[in-house]
Amino acid sequence: MTITTCVFDAYGTLFDVAAAARQAADEPAFSAIADCWPELAAHWRQKQLQYTWLRAVADAHTDFWEVTQNGLDWTLEAMGLQGDDTLRQRLLDLYWELQAYPEVPDMLKALKEAGKQTAILSNGSPDMLSGAVRSAGIADVLDDVLSVESVGIFKPDRRVYDLVGERFGCSPGEVLFVSSNGWDAAAASGYGFTTAWVNRAGEPMDRLPWTPAQVLSNLIPIPDLATA
Q: How do 5-8 and 194-198 pair as beta strands?
C-alpha cells in the first residue's frame, strides 16, 4: 500500500532532548553540570518516559509538562543538585526551545515536495509542541501537530495512534510512523503502521510482541522509505 502520511514522534525523534542540558552546561552559571550533563539528560529523559507509562496504567493522566518537571526534580535530587532553583528553571526554560536534529528541516521539506502529508504525534502537550515547532522553524512543513491531550492518555495506548486516521482519513497501512523510541515504533507496528525506529544510540531491540519495519541511525532515509 502506498504511503500517503508520514507521522513523527517529537521528543528524541525530531527534537534533541539532550539539548537543554547540553546548552545549560555550556553556560558559566551552570558549571556544576559541565561534566555530568549527559548523565543528567539521560536520567531526566528516562524518568519522564517512566512517569508517562506509570500514569497511563494507573489511569492518572496529567499533561506532559508536569511529568517533564517531575522527571527533572527526581534527577536533580538523584544527582545531589536539588535546591538549585536557578539551574532547574534554566533547564525547564530550555526545554521549550529544544534544537531540532540537523537533518529535520530538509527531510520534512523533501516529504512535502513528494506530496506526503506530515504530522507530529506526541505525548507532548499542545503548548510545548507549539513552542518546539516554532523554535525549530518547521511549522511550514507540517500539516498538523497531534497531542495525546485530546484523548487523555499517553502512548502506546491505541487511542493515541487512532488520532492519525481520524485527522487524515487514511488507513494504518498508508502511514509511515517514525519514532526514536523502540517501544513506540514497536507498538505502532502492532497497530498496523509501517514503522521506522530511529536508533541513534545503537540500542538493542526491545523485547516486545512486535518489531519496527526499519531501523535507522538518523532521519535522512525517510523520504526514500516514504516513496519506495
A: unpaired
Return the number of other C-beta atoms located less than 10 Å from residue 74's C-beta: 18
Report the amino acid identity of residue 46.
Answer: Q
Cα distance between residue 11 and residue 27, in whole Å: 23
Q: Is 59 a known active-site residue?
A: no
- Model pTM? 0.96
pLDDT, averaged per 10 consecutive residues of the chain (228 residues), comes to: 96 97 97 97 98 98 98 98 96 94 98 98 96 94 98 98 98 98 98 98 96 98 96
| Nearest Cα to Cα of residue 193 among 224, 223, 214 | 214
Instruction: Report the CATH number that the domain containing residue 147 is assigned in CATH.
Output: 3.40.50.1000
Q: Which domain holds residue 137?
A: 5-15+99-227
Using the 3D structure, point to which of 40, 69, 95 is the last residue of a domain: 95
